[in-house]
Amino acid sequence: MATPSVGCRVRILKDYATVRYIGPVAKQEGTWVGVEWDDPSRGKHDGSTGGIRYFECKASGNAGSFVRIERVSFGVSVLEALRARYNNETAEHGEEVKEDELYVHTSRNRRVRVQLVGEEKIQQKQRQIHALESARLVGLDVAFVDAASALSSSLPALTSLDLTCNLLTNWAAVEQLATALPNLSALNLSENRIQIQIQIPTAEQTAEEQKETVAGEVQPAASTQNTEPSAGEAAAALAPVPAAATAATTATALPPQPPAPRRGVLLPGLRVLVLNDCGISWQDVLQVAPQLPSLQELHCCGNSIPSLHPAPHHLRHSSSRASTAAAAAATTTTPPALPPTQQEAEGQQPLQQPQQQATVINQEDGSPQQQPQPQQQGQVQEGDGSGGEQAANDVQSECDDEAGGNDDEAAAELLASLFPRLQVLTLEEVGLRGWSQLLPLRRLPALTRLHLAGNPRITHVRYPDAAAAAAVPAAAAVAAPGAAAATESQPSTSSPSASDSPAAAVAAAAPDPTTAAVPAAAAAAASVSFPRLTALFLGGCGIADWGSVDQLDRFPELKEVRLTGNPVLALSRTGGRFEVIGRVSRLRHLNGAEVRPRERRDSELRYLQHIAAEMEAAAAAGDETSRAAVRAAHPRLRALMEVYGSVLATAARGGPGGPGGSLAASTVELKLTCVAAAAQAKMGTQVKKLPRTTTVSALRLLCERLFKVPADRMALFLRAPGDPLPEDLGGSELEDRPLAFFGVQAGYEVLVDEVDPGEVRAAGERSRQQAAAAHEQRLAEQLRAAERMQAEVARNMGAPQQQQ
């Protein structure tokens, strides 16, 4: 068992807390532990009772209480938890192992245990701990790490370790694990409150180390020692407080002193690191990044990370790295150090100088950094978690960050040097203040997947390098439909007149091919942002404009996007899927569903016909400003016209009597299917060739004549081949829309159903009433469960005097 000490993490029954005091309590017998609960509602006071203060709570409110030391679990070592779990002595979260855990119910509601084939062999294999390659120790109160020799001999083959929801508090445990287990490549530390204290050498120390490195005199850094306190420290921690102190009006326990900064240990084997809900900041991540040169996946969900911009001292030490290395190399006859980065060569310095600080990490290449300090007034404190910022301040911060210039580029270069192999980065629900806070990631050379779900303050997306996006060859869009992004077109000199067809209006709006090639030479020399990003997950964010969706098409390798839960999709009556596919040319997966070639063709045609309808309306109004706005709102206009222009022109030519027109070109073959269950309705399917100019109201009258369903009680739905969800054609604003507006093609199906307006309203009211009743029932069940839990806790805690 871990030795009790102030500042350690503990579990009491099923709740977690941090120890703030160990010792006697006035008018009580025995040794008591003063804790600050993770759940403040469990607390009874703020660290003082009976007029005497014993400790301070960091959280506001009454989050503290006293518990007898016998009822506190201070945790076990990794090997102790491993043996208990894989010898089937305990289940996850310390629960008892149930022999009849797997069972099925019979027709008479009796439990019949399920026996797994080969279960005994599997259990025997799991008991052979030395052969384990993957271990899961979730909620088993792991508080410290065993000696390196014991770990390496017991777990020589271990490659993946899950330590979610344990009692680890120090980054030194990670160093000990990775050092003792050389094959360890994946480590999950979620829900452990990790404190990171790593020393960064001063400039003088770095210069001296550079000289020693060149001379071959530097020795490998010693491994950190076991963090378990010594017997002397334990005795001192448990020693009773003198009587004079307990009789005083205040008996404050001194807060634990932070551990002395340590030199970081290189961890080249770790490739996957999960730090979800660990209470860390982005500056903490930057501190440990030099220790992880092989890191490929980093998960930081649930932490407070409003921005990814490094603190000024990180930029300062990054820019001084090249000059330090060069000065050290100049004193020897060996070849010079690596050349400086572009930011260093230009002599750029941060706008604000950092305060005087104690230095902190030994990076792999000897570069100095500093431990994050409280920032100056006007700067955002990383990880403060405060939510009092106003929307206007967010917008101003976005503008300031986007205009960061050299500092922004320096931050991007720094992160690219710290994470050269990072492929997956997860930052879900971290409170990002906007898209501009992610710009330091744009130079990561290997980043392929970026998870940003649950950050509602990301209200827009902007690709950083518009010039680089313009360099994508336009010919790629012709070879494969939607395979390349098109830059925003310039207003055409020859605007279509009101008498022009939609196809002619779209063709006239498309820019000249030479305009896209103008910036190509300059863009070729520029660095491409997010060069390998293939998947971007933005579910549950606050994106509310189609311009941000258009920006996704500028990412050179983007093939998968998730936009579920964003307000922009609510702007479309059909859910926005075909608009997103039409605007983003390289998408292969959208919201978890594959985009097949047939769906892409239909979506792009339908999207192009929407543009044609908008251009026709603007041409009819004779407003050049409106036509320019339509062209600017659809950057893919030219690429789509190059692929589908002839199809659109043929479909939009005049009627059979018009010049060059034909009946086949102006009609479309549709399946009309009646699914109405009314007695007078004629169910079945009929195939009809209808003009593309047929309006919804005219289609409604035709279906009334064919299927005997009253027009005022009729509901129409349009379904594309292979599309499981049909589009509702109801609504007064759509009655005058022609079939061409909906992108109707041969093979589409119109479903005809009968609805009762009064019944629809009544059904909606019943649904609301049922939802309210279900909500009340859930609340009642939760209250009963809470009462049962309180009774169980009272029985487990014993008499009232055992917890004050």
Structural notes for this entry:
By secondary structure, this protein is an alpha/beta fold. Helix content is 33%, strand content 13%. The chain has 25 helices and 28 strands. The longest helix has 41 residues. Pfam families: CAP_GLY (PF01302). Its main location: cytoplasm. One of its GO terms (cellular component) is axoneme. It is found in: Cytoplasm, Cytoskeleton, Cilium axoneme.
**What is the straight-line distance between the termini?**
25 Å
Largest sheet: 11 strands, mixed
Based on DSSP secondary structure assignment, what is the total number of beta strands?
Answer: 28
Shape: globular
As a whole number of angstroms, the C-alpha radius of gyration is 33 Å
| Low-confidence parts | 216-258, 322-397, 399-404, 466-503, 511-526, 653-662, 799-804
Mean pLDDT: 73
**Strand order within the widest beta sheet:** 10-12-13-16-17-18-19-20-21-22-23
SS field, number of helical segments: 25
Briefly note the structural class of the backbone. Answer: alpha/beta
Portion of residues within helices: 25-40%
Strand content: 5-15%
Summarize the entry for a quick read:
The protein has 804 residues and is an alpha/beta fold.
List the topology elements.
Blueprint: E1 9-12, E2 15-23, E3 32-37, E4 48-49, E5 52-53, E6 64-68, E7 76-77, H1 78-86, E8 103-105, E9 111-113, H2 119-127, E10 134-136, E11 142-144, H3 148-154, E12 160-162, H4 172-180, E13 186-188, E14 198-199, H5 203-215, H6 231-238, H7 243-247, E15 262-263, E16 272-274, H8 282-288, E17 297-299, H9 312-330, H10 342-345, H11 391-402, H12 406-418, E18 424-426, E19 449-451, H13 466-470, H14 475-479, H15 502-509, H16 513-517, H17 520-525, E20 535-537, H18 546-552, E21 560-562, H19 577-583, E22 589-590, E23 593-594, H20 597-621, H21 624-632, H22 637-651, H23 663-666, E24 667-674, E25 684-691, H24 696-707, E26 714-719, E27 727-728, E28 749-754, H25 757-797
Parallel strand pairs: 7-11, 10-12, 12-13, 13-16, 14-15, 16-17, 17-18, 18-19, 19-20, 20-21, 21-22, 24-28
Antiparallel strand pairs: 1-2, 2-3, 3-6, 4-5, 8-9, 22-23, 24-25, 26-27, 26-28
